[in-house]
Amino acid sequence: DESRMSVSDALNYLATCADDYANAVMDEARLDELRKAIRAEFMRESDEKTIADREAFAITRKEYREVSEELLPDAKRQVAYHKARMKWADATIEVWRSQQANKRNAEKVR
User: Fold this and answer.
1) What phi-psi label fits residue 50: left (phi over 0), alpha (psi between -120 and 50 degrees) or beta?
2) Radius of gyration over alpha carbons of the chain, in Å?
């Protein structure tokens, strides 16, 4: 069940997620740069006179829209997913540590 993460699951995730997270961050950056390059290329190819019209021409092209509306948002979701899972794992471990400390303190009181 995704809603419950054990301490061992949390530790395992933190130990194994670094590559996936790094790849997600790299994909996001690569796609953002590709989006910018595509926009610039289409702006250069445009016969429009004003910068605003050239940009409007560029951002309506299929290639630009595919990257900016499909691929880049998917990459951003992957980054957000890994960040959230890492926070969740950290919080799970922190709760466990607090519980263990409370148990130790309770045993000292007896």
Assistant:
1) beta
2) 23
Judged on CB neighbours under 10 Å (0-12, 13-18, 19+), 25 is: middle
Per residue in 18-42, pLDDT tens? Answer: 999 999 999 999 999 999 999 999 9
Task: Please state, in angstroms and rounded to a whole number, the distance separating the CA atoms of residues 102 and 109.
Answer: 11
Q: Give Dmax (Cα) for the chain.
A: 84
Q: Is the pTM of this model over 0.85?
A: no
Quick one: angle between helices 18-45 and 7-16, nearest 10? Answer: 50
How many Cβ atoms are within 10 Å of 50's Cβ, its own excluded? 9
Tell me what pLDDT residue 1 has: 46
